[in-house]
Design a protein that fits this description.
Helix 11 runs antiparallel to helix 16 and helix 14 runs antiparallel to helix 15. By secondary structure, the protein is an all-alpha fold. Helices cover 79% and strands 0% of the residues. The chain is flat, with a radius of gyration of 21 Å. It contains 16 helices and no strands.
C-alpha cells in the first residue's frame, strides 16, 4: 500500500465508525516528550524574565502553553497519519495503529488550540496568547502541511515553532518581546537542525520510503554532516550570548561554553563518520547529547538567575 492509498484508507475508515480510544491514546497524541521540552523552556522564559507574575497565573500560563504544544502535536499526527503508518519510528502512534480516527484527532487538536489560546489571553495577556496561536499555526500549517514535504530546509525553518516557548513565557511576565527573549529563541532555533538531522541520518531509509525530503536524502550525508557542525557552532555561540548581553553571569557563560564545546565535539564526530556507516553510532550519540545539552543550558540559565536573586537578597538584608 502506498502512502497516498494508506491516507485515503484512513480517511474512509474514519467516516464509517467511531474509535474506542483510551485516555492514554489521547495523551499520546499530545507528543508528551516534545511537550516536556516545551514546558521546560517556557518555564525558563517565565523565570528569566524581569519582574514578577502571580504564581497562580504562572501555573495557568504553563498549562496553556503545554496544552497548546499538545494541540500542535495532535494536529501534526492527524495530517501525517499517512506517512506515520509507513515509518518504523511512528507506525505505533494512535492514528496509524487504528486506536484513534483522524477526524477525532483533528477535532481534539482544534479544540485544545482554541482553549489554550483563549485562556492564556484572558488570564495572562494577549501578546503571549498571540505568540502561542502563531506557534500552533506555524507548526501545524507552515511546517507540517507545507515545509515538511516540500523542502530539505524543513527543519531549519520549521524549527522556529519549537523555539517560541521561552519567548511566550517571557511575554507572560513582561507583556513584551525583547532582545533577551529573542536570544532564548535563537538558542533553540540554532540547536534544532543539528539535533534533528542527527536523527535524520540514522532514519534516512524511513524518510526515503515516505518521500519526505530530509537533507540527508536530498543532499547526501556529507552535506548534512557539514551543516550539523555549522549549526552546532551557531547554537553554542548563541548559548553564551546571555553573558555578553548582561542578563547572565560569567559563571553561566563558562558553563555554556563548556557545554557548547562538547556539542561541537559530538558534531565533529558525526562529520568524521564514514558515509554509509550503517551503525551511525556518532549520530545517535549526538542526538542523545543534544537533548541533554538544551536542558542543561536552560537549567544553567535558571540556576544563574536564582543565585543572582539570592545574592541580591542577602545583600539587601544587611
Amino acid at each position: 500500500m502506498t502512502v497516498i492509498d494508506n491516507h485515503e484508507a484512513l480517511a474512509e475508515d474514519g467516516d464509517s465508525r467511531l474509535s474506542e480510544a483510551s485516555a492514554r491514546d489521547y495523551f499520546e497524541l499530545l507528543k508528551p516528550r516534545v511537550m516536556s521540552l516545551v514546558v521546560f523552556t517556557a518555564f525558563a522564559g517565565l523565570v528569566l524574565a524581569p519582574g514578577h507574575i502571580n504564581p497562580i497565573l504562572g501555573l495557568i500560563a504553563i498549562l496553556c502553553i503545554a496544552v497548546g504544544a499538545g494541540a500542535s502535536g495532535a494536529l501534526n499526527m492527524w495530517y501525517d497519519a499517512d506517512i506515520d503508518a509507513v515509518m518504523s519510528r511512528t507506525a505505533k502512534r494512535p492514528i496509524p495503529a487504528g486506536r484513534i480516527l483522524p477526524k477525532e484527532a483533528l477535532a481534539f487538536g482544534l479544540v485544545l488550540s482554541c482553549f489554550s489560546v483563549t485562556i492564556l489571553g484572558l488570564a495572562v495577556n494577549w501578546l503571549s496568547a498571540s505568540i502561542l496561536a502563531f506557534t500552533i499555526f506555524f507548526y501545524a500549517v507552515i511546517y507540517t502541511m507545507w515545509l515538511k514535504r516540500s523542502t530539505p530546509q524543513n527543519i531549519v525553518i520549521g524549527g522556529a515553532a519549537g523555539a517560541f516557548p521561552p519567548m511566550i513565557g517571557w511575554a507572560c511576565v513582561t507583556n513584551s518581546v525583547t532582545i533577551e527573549s529573542t536570544v532564548l529563541f535563537l538558542i533553540i532555533f540554532m540547536w534544532t537542525p543539528a539535533h534533528f538531522w542527527a536523527l535524520a541520518l540514522f532514519k534516512m531509509r524511513d524518510y526515503e520510503a515516505v518521500g519526505v525530503p530530509m537533507l540527508p536524502n536530498v543532499s547526501g550525508e556529507r552535506t548534512t554532516k557539514h551543516q550539523i557542525v555549522a549549526y552546532a557552532v551557531l547554537s553554542a555561540v548563541c548559548a553564551v550570548m546571555p553573558t555578553f548581553l548582561g542578563f547572565a553571569s560569567v559563571g553561566y557563560g563558562v558553563v555554556a561554553a563548556a557545554l557548547g564545546a562538547v556539542f561541537i565535539y559530538c558534531s565533529i564526530a558525526v562529520w568524521r563518520m564514514p558515509d554509509g556507516d550503517l551503525k551511525m553510532i556518532p549520530a545517535k550519540k549526538l542526538f542523545g547529547f543534544s537533548i541533554f545539552y538544551l536542558f542543561a543550558v536552560f537549567s544553567a540559565l535558571m540556576l544563574d538567575r536564582l543565585v543572582a536573586a539570592l545574592v541580591l537578597y542577602a545583600g539587601g538584608s544587611f
